[in-house]
Amino acid sequence: MGLDFTAIDFETANSHSASACSVGLVKVRDGNVVDETSWLIHPPLGFDAFNEWNTRIHGIMAPDVAEAAFWSEQLPDLVNFTEGDVLVAHNAGFDMGVISAACEASHIDCPDFSYICSLLVARRTYHLDSYRLPVAAMAAGFEDFAHHNALADAQACAAIIVHAARRHDASDISHLARITSQQVRKIGTAAKAVEAETHRSMALG
Predict the structure, then answer these.
(1) Is 8 helix (H, G, I), strand (E, B) or coil?
(2) How many CB atoms are located within 10 Å of the residue 195 CB?
(3) d(CA 190, CA 156)
């Protein structure tokens, strides 16, 4: 098994995690980018107001997503693209929170995903003053990209993971996670079931 994963990045319309307005996805097979895509998302109703600050960051406005499909309509495309891969994101808690919150706001089940964080990988790989995505990406040799464009950010994230895996001589994404002192974490209905069982066992103690 080689270095296979999908890098993912979301931009949001406002400060609420459910307000996904764009996504970028980059598929890596055996350490090489083999496919990539991005699209705009109409955030779930009630979470679709665009904050001026967010728009200043990513440049997306309400009219840009007016004709875009809603999160619930696009989620199957996201799942199909990832093909069961471990997902990788920079500050992954944010991006996984977007998936979970957007599903909850859309009244649909959150799919099961496994993931690791490229920010934590970077911290265990490079010696930098900052581990923000543009700085970590530069350390990986990926420079001058359009930060806060979802696809460009996903490309940068993928570059960090590929570069770090080579430096650590990691055979696959799980091996890289272990080397960088991470667990491959999970979200989704299966993850919730495990969490609930853990809490029940602790209560019975």
Answers:
(1) strand
(2) 11
(3) 30
| 46-55 as b/e: b if 16+ CB within 10 A | ebbebeeebb
Number of Cα atoms under 13 Å in the Cβ half of residue 166: 10
Q: Which of 88, 57, 109, 96 is nearest to 164 (CA)?
A: 88
pLDDT of 37 reads 98
Rounded to whole angstroms, the Cα distance separating 197 from 37 reads 37
**Residue whose structure tokens are 């495309």:** 77
90: domain CATH number is: 3.30.420.10
Q: According to the 3-state scheme, what is the secondary structure of 165-205?
A: HHHHCCCCHHHHHHHCCCCCEEECHHHHHHHHHHHHHHHHC
Q: Which residues pair with 17 in a beta bridge?
A: none
Which H helix or E strand runs over 101? helix 92-105
Res 189: pLDDT: 81
Per-residue confidence (pLDDT) for residue 202, from 0 to 100? 55
3-state secondary structure of 11: strand
Kindly write down the DSSP assignment for every residue of 132-151, as one continuous string.
SHHHHHHHTT--S--TT-HH
List of residues 6+ apart from 63 with CB closer than 8 A:
none
Residue-number span of the structural domain to which 186 is assigned: 5-204
What domain count does the chain have? 1
